[in-house]
Design brief:
This protein has about 350 residues and is α+β, with helices and mostly antiparallel strands. The protein has two domains: about 5-70 and about 175-345, Zn peptidases (Aminopeptidase); about 70-160, Peptidase M42, domain 2 (Elongation Factor Tu (Ef-tu), domain 3). It has helices at about 5-15, 25-35, 145-150, 175-195, 215-225, 265-280, 295-300, 325-345, and strands spanning about 40, 50, 60-65, 70-75, 85-90, 100-105, 110-115, 135-140, 155-160, 165, 170-175, 200-205, 225-235, 255-260, 285, 310-315, 325.
Length: about 350
């Protein structure tokens, strides 16, 4: 990954974007794609779209990722100045205690920690993890009045962890899920623009995926593309603590993961595999017999059915502050999107033969 693309990725990952509060992250994305897109726009809830205008009668293809990340919100401020929490999306109670967090308040960020009783002061024989609702943030305030000068109920909270380079091509950060998908959508569009493909290509950064695929339902109906491809993280199962029943073929550094079954339209799967093979892009396959759990599940039922596909980016430790990806997989997903855009005219119309 070259320096400018890495800088874009780092800015996405270091800009907090919890579900329902994606504006700052979307501004980063919009500013980047504006440099090469024919047009860029946003809707009422902040879904962002950039487009390469193709030729008449060529298919319209949307490459998407979701901008939001999981986190917390202030549910209540106690008499002694602590902050009680509620979850934003699928926040994991087992990794939250003892973590540095940032409250994103109206007057600027407020730093805090999620309290954890010292091992010396608790009965470790009965070490159950409290629910998020029973956990609390300590911002250093001594009273409710002092805390209310800094924060208020409904302020979003994210972990304070940031981007760390590991060995080789590996990166760790919170919110890889799914800023890596929005990065790939933007970079796929850039490749389509540089190749001046015949297809009209949209890059889309959706909001509120983590709380119900909401942004995809909004923007998918409005765009009405011929094909929608959702880039999102998928579980890499190559680390030692993955239980045998969940251990699958997905590995970091082995390329994007093309899903098959349920949501994933056979013709779009065929396009993705052919594009990867023709451009010598390594890829992996994944079975999704019921649903993908991504924005593709929203796109594929819109307007009577939009041929859709989920392309996964291998990710270790999903929904923790230390998610890990391999940058070679990110580049490969962007390359795959560029190749799919170039081959799209050969596969239209996207229907199954019955």
């Amino acid at each position: 990954m070259d320096t400018s693309r890495r800088a874009f990725l780092d800015e996405l990952l270091t800009t907090p974007s919890p579900s329902g509060f994606e504006v700052d992250g979307q501004r980063v994305w919009v500013d980047y794609v504006r440099e090469f897109a024919d047009d860029v726009w946003t809707d009422a809830y902040g879904n962002a779209v950039a487009v390469h205008e193709g030729v008449d009668d060529a298919p319209e293809v949307a490459f998407t990722g979701h901008a939001d990340e999981i986190g917390f919100m202030i549910r209540r401020i106690t008499d002694d100045g602590f902050l009680r929490l509620t979850r934003v999306g699928g926040s994991d109670k087992t990794v939250s205690k003892g973590q540095h967090v940032t409250v994103h308040a109206a007057d600027g960020p407020v730093e805090g920690v999620i309290g954890q009783t010292a091992i010396h002061l608790r009965d470790t024989a009965d070490d159950e993890v409290e629910s998020v609702a029973e956990q609390f943030v300590d911002i250093g305030a001594d009273s409710e009045a002092e805390a209310r000068e800094l924060v208020e109920v409904g302020d979003p909270i994210t972990f304070s962890s940031t981007v760390v380079d590991l060995a080789g091509h590996r990166l760790s950060a919170r919110g890889m899920d799914n800023r890596v998908g929005t990065w790939a959508a933007a970079e796929g569009l850039r490749r389509a623009v540089e190749a001046d493909v015949d297809a009209t290509v949209y890059a889309v950064s959706t909001v509120q995926e983590e709380v119900g695929l909401n942004g995809a339902e909004m923007v998918g109906f409005e765009l009405d593309p011929d094909v929608a491809v959702a880039a999102d993280v998928t579980h890499a199962t190559d680390n030692p603590d993955v239980d045998g029943q969940h251990r699958g073929p997905v590995e970091l550094g082995a390329g994007p993961v093309i899903a098959r079954g349920s949501t994933n339209h056979p013709r779009v799967v065929e396009l993705a595999r052919r594009a990867a093979e023709d451009d010598d892009i390594d890829y992996q396959l994944q079975a999704t017999g019921i649903r993908t759990g991504t924005d593709a599940d929203a796109f594929f039922t819109i307007r009577g059915g939009t041929p859709s596909l989920n392309v996964g980016i291998p990710n270790r430790y999903m929904h923790t502050p230390v998610e890990v990806v391999d940058t070679r997989d990110l580049v490969a997903v962007a390359d795959l999107f560029g190749a799919m855009a170039a081959h799209a005219v050969e596969y239209a119309p996207f229907t199954v033969d019955v």
